[in-house]
Structure formats: structure tokens, C-alpha cells
Amino acid sequence: MGDRNGNVRIAFDTWSLASRFRNHGTYVYAKHLLENFRAIGQKHSVEIRPFTSPVASNDANSFASAEHFVPTQTRLLQYDRVWRFGGASAAAFINRADLFFCPAGTVLPLSGLIPVVTTIHDVTPVVMPLFSRRLSSLLRFQLRNAAKFSQALITDSLCSKRDIVDVYGVPESKVSVVYLGYDENNFNGSPPDPEASVNLLTQLGITKPYILHHGVIQPRKNLKRLIEAYRLLLSRNRNLDFDLVLAGPLGWQYEDILTAANGNALKGRVLFSGALDDLQLAILVKGASLVVIPSLYEGFCLPMVEAMACGTPTIAADASCLPEVSGGVLKYFDPRSIEDMAACMEEVLESDTLKSELAQRGKHRAAKFGWQRCAEETLQILKAQCKGTPD
User: Fold this and answer.
1) What's 20's DSSP letter?
2) pLDDT score for 87
């Protein structure tokens, strides 16, 4: 096992770093893991081998080699279907890796060829299928085979672990929980640059205090009910005058959300920012009067942790992993009740004391998460799975 110096060789699947996924959570996860693996690989006696391809539009190509970090070119990465259905495992085997790590459950492991560890962030395609029947079936097939044929699994929360065990019948010992991190350089308690803030708000047409949600615009985020709760809030409390800002790119099946936003415009204004970079997003989060996380299902929910880290008062749905990840320190509501969501928003917006408490408790909880910690714990799991691998 390992090279002549005893370093464990870990091939890293970079498919989720394709440029088209830049605003997706799996991209953020893979990118930050690679950055931290590059920094700490030597300390852990591992050699990380991320796959690259000069002809593929993949951001792994921007990673420079370093000691214990060896980007490895393969032509297979440019062929999506080949890569996901065996090509990735074959490339890892050909490159004499001791282990193949897939940071998203999108690759079919070839049983017996090389040990594979896969991160399954959640089981959304099973519990909340939102795509066409064909695509939903494909996603379920990929996750099922990743759960079955991977030597070990990593997931983002205890909630997701329970779902994986229940849905796929794998033993609990096969699934390890590693909480994600967040970008501390941008999402923190430091005030944003005043000039940059004014410029961004002007660019987006934000002219008054605002309530914020950030993330890809898609049905699982429950934004149609958030819009309805926001309008209910304003209709029954005329002392409150806020815009609702939905920050993030349009994802899929968002038509009902746009329709809800454009309707009844006399009762509140809903603004869509489109895709923003992390610095712009952090400015919006820090300037918000309230961040609302109404998701019906999440594996971890980076936007919630980012808002907490900024010290922005945050409320969340009492669904899936949200109370677990937030440590129970926020205010929670039933995500399927427009009335409950509006009442929770109103309670916080009307109380400076409660806003301050939520801000302080959120920052303290968010400090427990970090990408270096996530990378350290992940590497320990990967190394443990290499034991007994023949040289």
C-alpha cells in the first residue's frame, strides 16, 4: 500500500468541479476539500491525485501541483457518461491509486477494481424527486449503486445518515458523518465595505431593509411558501416595511416561484439577484434584517451556516437536518405552514432583543464548523479505508 515513501495514494474524482456546477453545494464541497487536502496532505502522509483534463471545462485544472498533491490528467474526464459509469474507477486503478474518493454520489464504482469511498450528501432524489422521471430514475440508480458498492460512505449530518441507512439498508458502521465547513474569509462578523455595499444594493435595486434567502432557486427550498408568508406578514403588520430578496441563480422548476413573486405586487416587493460571487453574497447576508431558511429537505444547508457565521438573525424550518446542524439555537417554524412561517418572521423582526440573541447564538454555533476540520476528518476516514490494500 502507498508509494515507496509509505504515502497513501488517493485518487480524487473531480467531476463535480465542472464549471457548470459552480453554484451547487457539491461543487463548493469538492473545491474546499481539494484546497485543504493540498495544504495538509503531507502532514497526513497521503498523496492526493485529483483528475484533470485540459479539454474538459473543469475547475480542477486550476489547481497547481505541490508536494503530496499531484494533479493527474485523463482523457476520460471529458466524457460524462463514460466517466460516471466506470471510467472514473478505471482511471484511478490505471493510475495505481490505493483508494478512489468520490465527493458526490454520481459515479458508479466498479466492484473489486479499487476501494471506493463516496460522499452521499443526502437522498433528495428518493425522498423528494423534483426532476423528470428519467432523470430522477438515473439519480436514484447512481445513489443506490454508490451506497451498495462503495467500501465506505461519508455524509453531512446524522439526519442524512439515518436516511441512507433506512433507504439503502446499509449498516450504520458503513456511514460516517462529517459536518461541512463554510468560507470564513467572506462569511464572518466583520462589517462589509460600505462603498461595495452601496454599489451592490444599487445594482440590485434594493432601497429598503430586506429579508433574505440565498441559494439556488428550486422547489426544495420552499420559496413559494416563503413569498406567501412574507406577503401575509406585511398585510397584517403595517409597521413592517421590508423587501424580500431571493439571492441565487435560477435552478429548475422555478416557474411557480416567479409567478408567486410577480403576483400581488402591492403587498411587498420580491427581488431576484441572480448568481453572485461569495463576496457579493456575504455583503447581502451581512446587510439583511433577517435570513429565512424554509427548506423542506437539506443534507447540511451551507446558506444557513453562512448566515449564522455573519451574525445575521436567522430562522429556519424544523425539518430534516436544520435543527441538528444549527444546534437548536435558532427560532424554528413548520415549513408547510404559511401562517407559522409568517408568525416566526414577525416575532423576530419586532424584537431587537430576540434578533440580538439569534445573532450571538448563531455565530457561536457556526464557529464549530470549518473546511480544515472537515478535510482532516475526511482524510482520517479515507486513510482508515486504505488499510489492507495491497501494494
Assistant:
1) G
2) 92
What range does the domain containing 223 cover? Answer: 194-366
pLDDT tens, 375-391? 999 999 999 998 644 43
- Which is nearest to 53 in space by CA: 75, 84, 27? 75
Instruction: Give per-residue pLDDT as tens, 211-240.
Output: 999 999 999 999 999 999 999 999 999 899
CB distance 57 to 19 below 8 Å: yes
- The reported pLDDT for the residue numbered 138 is 81
- What strands, in cross-sheet order, belong to the sheet with 72-73? 72-73, 46-52, 8-12, 99-102, 116-119, 152-155, 175-177
- Are 159 and 230 contained in the same domain? no
Domain count, the chain: 2
Same domain for 177 and 235, yes or no, is no
Q: Please check whether residue 28 lies inside any domain of the structure.
A: yes
Kindly report which listed range (266-270, 312-316, 375-379) carries the lowest average pLDDT score: 266-270
Q: What is the pTM of this model?
A: 0.92
Q: Are residues 114 and 56 in the same domain?
A: yes
Backbone angles phi, psi at 270, to 5 degrees: -105, 125
Collapsing DSSP to helix, strand or coil, 319 comes out as coil
The reply to whether 40 and 74 lie within a common domain is yes
Nearest to 40 by CA among 2, 17, 65, 67: 67
Angle, alpha carbons 244-322-13 (nearest 5°)? 100
Domain contains 189: no
- Residues contacting residue 342 through CB under 8 Å, at least 6 positions apart: 229, 230, 232, 233, 236
3-state SS, residue 154: strand
